[in-house]
Amino acid sequence: MTSAVEEQRILENEKELAGAWASPSLRFAKGDVTAISPVLERVLLEMRQTGVPCYAWEHLKVLLLAKLKLALDQVHAGDKQTPTPGVGWSPTNRNNRFDERCANVTGLLNTFEGPPFTLQRLTEIIMEPEKSYKSLHKLINALEKLLAVSSTIQVVNPRTAPAIVQQFRSPSPTEVDSPIARPIPQTVEGVGELDVAARAPWSGTETAA
């Protein structure tokens, strides 16, 4: 059972997510934003810390798309190694224009009908993109690989998520019967074997995707 404070926090998160998704102008859904509210940043931080999606995926996906676009713009603005307008080459996209490759990355995220198994690592990168990647083309390469995963995880009720995360961090996480313990296969065409580290939602360490 959640405390009154926790319940208030959950209700605030749900209201803000629903409002961003249902915006009449659809600016948020299109990624046409310059900042994300503290409440929505808190939602991102929770996913970064736990790897567990706790709200409607259609709402979370809109938030992730907006944050992804902001991260790409941030690194693009500070990238001194990349000639304008090109951003390098990758095996998954031979076009080297910034807008084309950004569209490819957001398109990959849009294809997911549920949270990708690499959600935690994805959230880490888009919240602090320059911590790991100073070059825009390296950032996009990493994002493309993270979004080329073949599995999704299920959304968990935010009121029960803390208990589930605690179970996963117990000595025998594989014995836990929970939706996020059973990734759902999802096929992504045109990609090969991945080499980007993806953090499993029940652990504090990184595993190979």
Polypeptide structure, described:
The chain is mostly helical and 209 residues long. The protein has one domain (4-161, 171-208). It contains eight helices and four strands. The chain has helices at residues 4-21, 38-50, 57-78, 98-110, 119-127, 129-132, 136-146, 161-168; strands spanning 151-152, 184-185, 197-199, 206-208. The chain has a two-stranded antiparallel sheet. A two-stranded antiparallel sheet has the order 3-4. Mean pLDDT is 75; it is low at 173-179 and 186-209.
Count of distinct structural domains: 1
| Classification by helices and strands | mainly alpha
Low-confidence stretches: 173-179, 186-209
Describe the sheet with the most strands.
2 strands, antiparallel
Order of helices and strands: HHHHHHHEHEEE
Measured between the Cα atoms of the first and last residue, the distance is 34 Å
Give the neighbour order of strands across the main sheet: 1-2
Overview features:
two-stranded antiparallel sheet, globular, 209 residues, 47% helix, mainly alpha
